[in-house]
Amino acid sequence: MRGFLASSVLSAVACAFPTAATADVPPEERTTIDRIIGGKGAYSADDGAYKVVLPREAATFFQNFQTLSPNLGLNSWVTFSSAIHQESILAGQFLLLEDEVNPVLTVALEAGLEVSALSRSSVFYGPQFHTLDVSGRGTFRDLAAAFRKGLQEIRRVRRNPASGRTRWRRPSIPIESAIDGRPLDAVLSMRGTVLAGVYKAAIGKRAVIHGELIGRELGITTWVSVSGTNDHALVHGEFVEIPDDLRKVLKAMRMKGINIESIQNHTVGEHPQFVFIRFWAQGAALELAKAKALRYVLEVDVGTISAPEAKL
Q1: Which of 9, 169, 197, 231 counts the most CB atoms within 10 A of its CB?
Q2: CA geometry: angle 156, 158, 160, nearest 5 deg
């Protein structure tokens, strides 16, 4: 009797709360997605999901004599599914060349997509690719349009690659450094150290992992390093954020022209969950530290000022 009651309760719950995985993506919405994205998708009835795979020619042609299969993961893709609280949910991934990463990340945030991860993708000799993971909730049409903006940004950068390379260059490590740390401490409200002319400061957050408290010295750290000279400095470091703060900090960083290098996890099973944003920027040390850049992002992070809502 007890088993029968449990089965009846589970059946009632399943009927009352149908899952997005069992919901259909209507044929007319699939047609709309194809038209907006500019590709032809495939529907999985088992998952109730419609997926469009978009191979990249730049990744498929490897050297002058070899063509690679898209099954090596050398593609962008996006999947749509019906949802409970919204019409649709989206999960997708952009495959990006280095000079496309920050422009596409900016456009994705501006279009309302959530950015959850950024990492290097290439394991072959040749062009270096990154994968940018995105998600979203809304209507099928709006989500497809948001993802398409990222694809259009890739095309825009590729139409004028020379100007893209001029705007975006991977920084080099300064041969010698002579950073004055005292003004940086005052601006950033941090207590840094200078070693061999390089400034570094860090602030920690706390988490619980396997029932144990961890903090700054165990890696839950926002840190910044400044090398070079006061007038020509390279700033790089990491922001550590909980998922709820990730979007606002990414928007603040891109609004101030800070380059995002990676978005990833360092630990597993911690509470709250933390995501680490590796970044870099170049310019005058104090200008990068002031409200023009890092100070602004730090204040957005701690909530001293509101999260940026203006167009990026």
Answers
A1: 197
A2: 80
Rounded CA-CA distance 134/259 in Å is 18
What's the number of domains the chain is made of? 2
Task: Look at the block and give the residue holding tokens 């280095």.
Answer: 98
Residues 222 and 254 in one domain: yes
Place of tokens 């408290």: 213
pTM listed for this prediction: 0.85
Last residue of a domain, one of 117, 141, 167: 167
- Which strands form 75-82's sheet, in the order they lie side by side? 42-44, 49-55, 75-82, 88-97, 129-138, 114-120, 259-264, 275-283, 233-241, 221-228, 198-204, 193-195
Region 87-105: what's the mean pLDDT? 96
Kindly state whether residues 215 and 88 are assigned to the same domain: no
Residue 159 and residue 23 share a domain: yes
